[in-house]
Amino acid sequence: MAQMTGPRIAIIDYGMGNLRSVEKALARVGADARVIAVPDEAEGADGLVLPGVGAFAQAMERLRAAGFDELVASWVRQDRPFLGICLGLQLLFTESEEFGPVRGLDLVPGRVVRFRGPQFEARDGRPGLKVPHMGWNSLRVVRPHPVTNGVPEDAMAYFVHSYYCVPGDPGWTAVTTDHGLEFTSAIGRGNVFASQFHPEKSGDVGLGMLANFAALVRCAGSR
Fold first, then answer.
1. What is the pLDDT of residues 173-222, one digit of tens each?
2. In a 10 Å sphere around its CB, with 0-12 CB exposed, 13-18 middle and 19+ buried, how is residue 78 labelled?
3. pLDDT per position as a tens digit, 113-155
4. Where are the alpha helices (DSSP H) in 115-185?
5. Max intra-chain CA distance, the chain
6. Are the C-beta atoms of residues 11 and 33 closer than 8 Å to each other?
7. DSSP state of 15
8. Could you tell me the residue ranges of all domains in the chain?
9. Cβ–Cβ < 8 Å for 11, 51
10. Could you tell me the end-to-end alpha-carbon distance of the chain, in angstroms, rounded to an integer?
11. How far is it, in rounded angstroms, from Cα 117 to Cα 168?
12. Is the pLDDT confidence value at 97 over 50?
C-alpha cells in the first residue's frame, strides 16, 4: 500500500523571511511543506505560502525579479489555497506608504499605512504606545473563514510590525486586533487567507490555524 503524504505546500523563498520556522510548523501539522526558490518549483503543490519580514519596496523588487509576483497573482486570482504571513499579507494590497507610496500586487484593494496618532506619542511625561507593535495581542474573528475554525474568543497571536493594512473592501477583513486602534489583522475570502501576525510563532492557536490551512489544501488537492 502506498504511504499517504500530507498536503503539498510550497513556501516562497525571496530572501525576506524566516522560512524554516514556517516550514517546520507546517510539517508539525502534517503538511508536506517545501521551500521553493523559483516559480517552477511550485508545480505539483496544492497550497502556496508567502511569508516575509522587512521593507515593502525591497520585497516587491525581489518578487518581481524572481517572477514570484506572477505566480502569486495567478494563484490568488484562481482562488487556490494561499496563505500570506506578515509582509506576505501587506504585499497583496494595492500600495504601501512605507518609503512610498510603493505599488503592491494589487490583489486586494486597499493601502498599507503606519501606526500614527496621539495615542502613539509621548504626552504629559507618559510614553505613547510603542511602534513597532511587537509581542502578543488578542484576535477577534469578525468574519468566519476555514482557517479560523476553532479559534477561541480569547486567542492570542504574536505580532511584529509598524504598518497595518486598510482594505478598501471591508468584506476582506476576517480578524481584527486592537493596538491603539482596531486594525485588520487577517483577511480571508474563499481559499485565500493572510495574517499580519505570525501563526508559526503563535503557539497552539497558530498551529491550529496552520492545521486548518493544511486541511484546506488537502481538500483542494483531492478534487
1. 999 999 999 999 999 999 999 999 999 999 999 999 999 999 999 987 65
2. exposed
3. 999 999 898 887 788 899 999 999 999 999 999 999 999 998 9
4. none
5. 71
6. yes
7. S
8. 8-221
9. yes
10. 21
11. 21
12. yes
Partnered with residue 135 across adjacent β-strands are 159
Q: Which residue has the cell 506576505?
A: 88
Q: Which residues pair with 84 in a beta bridge?
A: 50, 194
Secondary structure class of 139 (helix, strand, coil):
coil
Three cell numbers written together for 30: 502534517
Beta-sheet strands, E only, within 115-169 = 133-138, 140-141, 156-161, 163-167
Q: What is the CATH number of domain 8-221?
A: 3.40.50.880
| Residues labelled as active-site residues | 86, 198, 200
Using pLDDT thresholds of 50, 70 and 90, give the confidence band for residue 61.
Answer: very high
Reading the block at residue 72, the C-alpha cell is 502569486
Q: Say if residues 28 and 201 touch (Cβ distance below 8 Å).
A: no
Q: Which three cell numbers stand for residue 4?
A: 499517504
Write down the residue that cell numbers 486586494 correspond to.
108
Task: Annotate 75-100 with DSSP letters as a single string.
Answer: HHHTT--EEEETHHHHTTEEEE-TTS
Q: Which amino acid is at 28?
A: R
